[in-house]
Amino acid sequence: MKSLRELDYSVLQQCIHCGLCLPTCPTYDITKAERNSPRGRISLMRAIADGELEAGAAFGDEMYYCLGCLACQTACPAGVDYATLFETARAEAEASPAFAARSPGRKVLRAFLLRGLFMRPRLLRLAGRLLELWQRLGLDRLARALRLTALLPARLRKLERQTPRVSRRFSHQLIAPVEGGAEARFRVGLLTGCVQDLIYPQVNRDTADALRAHGCQVHTPPVQPCCGSLLAHNGEPAAAADLARRMIDLFPPDQFDAFITNAGGCGSHLKQYGRLLADDPAYAARAAAWAAKVRDIHEWMAEVGIEPATPGGCVPRRAVAYHASCHLCHGQKIDAAPRAVLRAVPGVAVVEIPESTWCCGSAGIYNLTHPETAQRLLDRKIAHLRASGAEIVATGNPGCLLQLENGAREAGLSLRVVHPVTLWAEARREVQ
Ligand code: SF4
Ligand code: SF4
Predict the structure, then answer these.
(1) Going by fewer Cβ within 10 Å, which terminus of the chain is more open, N or C?
(2) H or E stretch including 217?
(3) Which secondary structure element, helix H or strand E, spans residue 179, and what is its range?
(4) Number of the ligand 2 atom closest to the C-alpha atom of 78
(5) What is the distance in A from the centroid of ligand 2 to the CA of 330?
(6) 256 Cα–ligand 1 center, Å
């Protein structure tokens, strides 16, 4: 990826400093400081492109204080491409020796997690399997009972309590490589993701069921690379491009009608493969063709016509709130389709919550890197959910599922947190 100086200058010039994005920016809302606003951040990026500022530690901190939620992009009347600016700026920060030198431990952790685990799907699954075993044997509870976790720094102690339960079975154990007959109307590839695969593989199973019910033959290779969103959003564009090439090789675009994802954060990035590989002559055309076929599951169901989940009948009414994942509603501009999927489930009454498109604080790994700000956003979200009286909250991104589950548990709120497609698939199964 290009640096800020190499970026098409018109992208940096798009901002007309109107300030309309400021009220939608969660970090500006907290601090009321211009530098923590979209406009302030774009000014910093432009100063670097103009050679007036070095991309040092302060710049890096600011770019990582940004959630990358893209609410500013939705609000902007000038069409600022904040997603490109944000990814370029974080990559610029990572390339800065001053930023990297401040925390050698962070560098080691990044190398292990981003370029180690997330580049190797089998290794990631092995790590997931070990963690699942640790949890299943109750060693996590034993460590807490023996107060061994008290030896951890306070921040890690809190994170340890929030460690998600890893599933006993992963996606390849729930979904056959090919499901549905050749007579199906569409041939689609199902992307099982990383977090979704380890923590919420049932969402992938539910997605496969929904696809089959919508006339698809579903291809789900048992081992898939990470889509690269975590790397692209965290300043590792070269590694993200490498993963994109692997994904395109695994799913040749001329052999499929669509590539389906059920994770808002992944979909937002997958749709950028054309931009990511635009300068690679061996992949540019295929990447553009590939990106044009990416669909979020709700988007696809709406496109081909949402089937009612059951033939109808008398079912209990359930109040379901919808929390819009940032990269689904702001990154992909998909907001009506998930609500339409929910409304296709008998008994579901969608209740609107204030700020449904406001970040819950998950934001990739933001809840790990900036726990205090993430907690403030989570508290705000949970307060809206509590006031709504909803018994279920639906959301289309694994990071949001995790964040809301933790928030509801810590707040003592009885709330089921679920993917919309799961509610649809569960209702469908009831009549089969
Ligand atoms: S991406 Fe979100 S946090 Fe970052 S500047 Fe835009 S609105 Fe603010
Ligand atoms: S709304 Fe758009 S043009 Fe206006 S200040 Fe924000 S980013 Fe700049």
Answers:
(1) C
(2) strand 216-219
(3) strand 178-179
(4) 3
(5) 15
(6) 35
Q: Report pTM.
A: 0.93
Neighbours of 36 (CB within 10 A): 20
What is the three-class DSSP state of 53? Answer: coil
d(CA 244, CA 290): 10
Residue 14 CA, ligand 2 centroid: distance in Å: 8
Rounded CA separation 119/238 (Å): 12
Give the chain's largest Cα–Cα span. Answer: 67
- Percent of the chain's residues with pLDDT above 90: 79
359 close to 384: Cβ distance less than 8 angstroms: no
Which residues 6+ apart lie within 8 Å of 93 measured at CB?
55, 59, 60, 63, 64, 99, 235
Tokens representing 348 are: 């579901």
The two structure tokens encoding residue 274: 């054309």
**Residue 15 Cβ < 6 Å to ligand 1:** no
The H-or-E segment that residue 350 falls in is strand 348-351
- Rounded Cα distance, 263 and 195, in Å: 9
Does the Cβ of 40 fall within 6 Å of ligand 1? no
| Phi, psi of 71, deg, nearest 5 | -60, -35
What single letter denotes the amino acid at residue 397?
N
Considering only CA atoms, which residue is closest to atom 8 of ligand 1?
25
Ligand 1 atom with minimal separation from the 67 CA? 3
- The residue whose two tokens read 């052999």 is 255
